[in-house]
């Protein structure tokens, strides 16, 4: 379970150093198996290149080798992604997640070539972010298989889809890729049954999700039943925040902030919370309790 960090900003609109450190420490204290950053939950598209590099340095420095770090690489060109990937490696990342370039509608082979051109210049293990429902671009199992065949360091997949889709992808790629799903932890038990190595959820209720993962790993029927019961407890929270990426960034971040004792300052453009939505977020956060 690799919680994908939120980007916390201060009143002036800059990245909040103390809040970002607090988030990392809470994740580690609760037993996160790894830390991820600079994905959709980190609002990577709103960050400047300098800010992305800053987040890389902060996260790797704060983790200080206590668990693996996965950093998402955002860039419009091969050159931009290679530069950011090398910066991530220098900061201390253990593996990378490549987002597709923001050009939709191309033949799949063009995306395979793009990812391959980045991968051949990087020594770290690489995951492909396959999130067609969120970013409008995704590779087929055949495309991923070919990418791995040509570039063996492309050996992971960061999926964003239903457990049924993920299970089929795992089968069709013949186990060549280590697969993590996202979607805030929806269908967590079934994702693990489908063959996922883990998930990359947001930090809202990651402490419960880590416990679910550990229970599911034991192989004991009573632990699996306990994992299902725990999943049922957090499912309303996940459903509330995962209506859209905008909802996640508005309300999911606020639930995490309430649990962490932090204040949210949005960076525009951003969905603004309603009074009703804030009341819902407070109710969910109170049910989950504070994060030490």
From TrEMBL:
CDD domains: DHDPS-like. Pyruvate binds at residue 200. GO terms for cellular component: cytosol. GO terms for molecular function: 4-hydroxy-tetrahydrodipicolinate synthase activity. It comes from the Bacteria. Keywords: Lyase. Gene3D superfamilies: Aldolase class I. The keyword Transferase does not apply. The keyword Acyltransferase does not apply. PANTHER family: 4-HYDROXY-2-OXOGLUTARATE ALDOLASE, MITOCHONDRIAL (PTHR12128:SF66), DIHYDRODIPICOLINATE SYNTHASE (PTHR12128). Belongs to the DapA family. This is Dihydrodipicolinate synthase family protein.
């Amino acid at each position: 379970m690799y919680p994908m960090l939120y980007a916390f900003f201060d009143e002036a609109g800059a990245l909040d150093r103390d809040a970002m450190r607090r988030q990392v420490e809470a994740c580690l204290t609760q037993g996160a198996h790894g830390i991820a950053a600079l994905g959709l939950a980190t609002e990577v598209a709103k960050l400047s290149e300098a800010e992305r590099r800053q987040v890389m340095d902060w996260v790797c420095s704060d983790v200080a080798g206590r668990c693996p770090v996965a950093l998402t690489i955002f860039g419009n060109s091969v050159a931009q992604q290679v530069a950011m990937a090398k910066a991530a490696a220098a900061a201390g990342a253990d593996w990378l997640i490549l987002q597709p370039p923001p050009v939709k509608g191309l033949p799949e082979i063009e995306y395979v070539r793009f990812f391959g051109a980045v991968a051949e210049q990087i020594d770290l293990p690489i995951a492909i972010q396959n999130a067609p429902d969120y970013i409008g671009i995704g590779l087929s199992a055949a495309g991923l298989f070919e990418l791995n065949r040509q570039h063996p360091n492309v050996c992971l997949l960061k999926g964003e889809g239903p457990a049924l889709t993920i299970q089929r992808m795992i089968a069709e790629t013949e186990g060549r890729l280590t697969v993590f799903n996202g979607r805030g932890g929806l269908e967590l038990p079934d994702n693990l049954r489908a063959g996922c190595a883990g998930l990359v959820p947001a930090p809202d209720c990651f402490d419960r999700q880590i416990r679910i993962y550990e229970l599911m790993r034991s192989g004991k029927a009573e632990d699996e039943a306990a994992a299902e019961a725990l999943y049922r407890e957090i499912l309303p929270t996940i459903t509330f925040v995962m209506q859209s990426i905008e909802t996640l960034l508005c309300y999911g971040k606020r639930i995490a902030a309430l649990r962490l004792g932090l204040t949210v300052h949005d960076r525009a453009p951003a969905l603004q919370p309603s009074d009703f939505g804030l009341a819902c977020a407070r109710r969910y956060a109170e049910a989950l309790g504070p994060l030490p």
